[in-house]
Amino acid sequence: MEIIGELESEVLNALQSRGSASTAEIVADLQRKREIAYTTVSTTLDRLYRKNLVKRKAVRGPGGTKFIFEPSKDDRPKIKIIKSAIDRLTSAFGETTYSALYKIMDDLPDNELEKLKKRVEGTRKRQLC
């Protein structure tokens, strides 16, 4: 069962904000809010890489080789994690989970809700074919 933790979520958010970044850059961003070790962020980025949520490329420099990370564009691992989380919540809270999801959708800005509707319609059309 794939899940992401709170720290993984924070690291992904910092990476999303930058588009691409080194571990040191993510550490600097996170340290604006709290104390965090370089090794902790490095390990977290490696976990996210193994979950296919980030991509990385090695870059050689004067200090040696470092990785530059960027968010993965592949939605499949993200969908798998989200589905797993919803399944766990549904198992624990039943229909209240769906009520909460509908409430969240009601609070979406109109343009985001419209995008979501189009994705749902596209998925349904593909399933019918």
Radius of gyration: 18 Å
Biggest sheet statistics: 3 strands, antiparallel
Known CATH architecture of the largest domain = Orthogonal Bundle
Percent range for helical residues?
55-70%
- Ends distance: 30 Å
CATH class membership of the largest domain? Mainly Alpha
Assess the beta-strand content as a share of residues: 5-15%
Instruction: Please name the CATH topology of the largest domain.
Output: Arc Repressor Mutant, subunit A
What is the fourth-level CATH superfamily of the largest domain?
Winged helix-like DNA-binding domain superfamily/Winged helix DNA-binding domain
Number of domains: 2
- Give the rounded overall mean pLDDT: 93
Overview features:
129 residues; alpha+beta; Arc Repressor Mutant, subunit A
Explain what the structure shows.
This protein is an alpha+beta fold. It has two domains: 6-71, Arc Repressor Mutant, subunit A (Orthogonal Bundle), CATH 1.10.10; 75-128. The protein has helices at residues 6-18, 23-31, 38-50, 75-93, 96-106, 110-128, and strands at 21-22, 54-61, 64-71. A hairpin with a 2-residue loop joins strand 2 (54-61) and strand 3 (64-71). Helix 1 (6-18) crosses helix 3 (38-50). It is elongated, with a radius of gyration of 18 Å.
What is the topological layout?
Blueprint: H1 6-18, E1 21-22, H2 23-31, H3 38-50, E2 54-61, E3 64-71, H4 75-93, H5 96-106, H6 110-128
Antiparallel strand pairs: 1-3, 2-3
Helix pairs in contact: 1-3, 2-3
Structure at a glance:
This protein has helices at residues 6-18, 23-31, 38-50, 75-93, 96-106, 110-128, and strands at 21-22, 54-61, 64-71.
